[in-house]
Design goal:
5-stranded antiparallel β-sheet
């Protein structure tokens, strides 16, 4: 199976299956002599792990990370960093009834057509469990970016219910189980998802990720543009179906005058009067906040019976038991942050290599 690695200079390869003994990743390209210890990574994994509210999968995983290589006496050595996360709460029997059936909306059918075999136990490599490895790699990437780059994510829509941007408060994000910057919206989502969960269904979501303090000059035109690599990184996350940067699709409704991010001088520095470009011009960071949003589809594993077929060509109905998120977009917030960090760290190292 190809396609398990991401990045150019900063590069990580994830491995493992949802119901295997462990998952993890190997991170390469990390500069030597950076401070790194397991708690630095654990902090970010704890934000993603399941079982933290009734709105997430009730699978009980500590997601405890172990550093196996590449760190000596609390410092990176420049060697590959191998990270291990053991799977602790595996219940493969939940999938026994559907091992020969294809779940609609899931990767079951396409994996089977491509490889002639698939891991039916939670979806194997197609499971959202794989995203823990991305968050671990993202934690290492944040060490390269340093404290001057802040990456923050928030949930801005669940199903048809959007936040009110006039009530945006970053402090609120850590105060509710939805990562919502709008406390009132979080209350609406709570009732909405309770009803969705009781129906045995699921809902989609939209996540916004903002990176502040990014220096200008990151990005490699023409084909390795910063926004192109960000879009690829985000689209590689499970269940993501759309990405937009800056004004995104709304830019199509603006006039040229409205869309142009005008500039003035302030204390000898260029100051932008708006940020429709989302902090990226010509594929290169401008120094403004980098802003992206991505849409996550409803969780494919649901209790409500859906029509499908099995590997023998029989028409069947599928109802997926087990422990699944009624809205997988909630736990996608720290994953989106991690992939933003990975891309920015990669391009920061590429910029240093070329331009010093």
């Amino acid at each position: 199976m190809a396609g398990n690695s991401f990045g150019t200079v900063f590069r990580f390869t994830s491995w493992g299956e949802s119901h295997g003994p462990a998952i993890g990743c190997v991170v390469d390209g990390v500069p030597p002599r950076l401070s790194l210890a397991e708690p630095d990574i654990q902090h970010w994994l704890d934000r993603r792990k399941p079982g933290q509210s009734r709105f997430a999968s009730q699978r009980r995983e500590s997601d405890r990370v172990r550093i196996l290589s590449g760190v000596l006496e609390g410092k990176t050595t420049g060697a590959p960093i191998s990270l291990l996360i053991e799977n602790e709460d595996v219940r493969s029997k939940d999938y026994a009834e559907i091992k020969d059936k294809f779940r609609p909306g899931h990767a079951d059918y396409t994996y089977w057509k491509k490889y002639g075999i698939r891991d039916y136990r939670g979806g194997g490599r197609a499971s959202a469990r794989e995203t823990a490895a991305r968050v671990a790699a993202g934690a290492v990437a944040r060490k390269i970016l340093g404290d001057w780059v802040a990456i923050r994510g928030a949930l801005v829509q669940v199903g048809p219910h959007r936040i009110d941007r006039a009530r945006w408060d970053w402090a609120a994000v850590e105060d509710n189980p939805f990562w919502s910057p709008d406390r009132q919206a979080a209350q609406v989502w709570e009732g909405f998802l309770d009803e969705v969960r009781k129906r045995g269904s699921s809902a989609g979501a939209v996540i916004e990720v903002v990176a502040s303090g990014v220096p200008p000059g990151l990005g490699e035109p023409v084909y390795d543009k910063l926004d192109a690599d960000l879009a690829r990184a985000i689209m590689s996350i499970n269940a993501v179906k759309a990405v937009e940067i800056g004004a995104g699709f709304a830019a199509a409704e603006l006039s040229g005058e409205e869309n142009a991010d005008e500039m003035r001088m302030e204390k000898g520095e260029v100051r932008f009067l708006s940020n429709n470009a989302g902090g990226i011009l010509g594929g290169i960071s401008s120094g403004q906040d980098i802003v992206l949003r991505f849409a996550v589809k409803p969780t494919s594993s649901i209790l409500t019976p859906r029509r499908s077929v099995d590997i023998h060509g029989n028409e069947v109905e599928v109802s997926t038991k087990g422990r699944h998120d009624p809205c997988v977009g909630i736990r996608a917030v720290p994953v989106g942050e991690a992939m933003m960090a990975v891309v920015l760290a990669d391009h920061l190292l590429r910029q240093r290599a070329q331009c010093g």
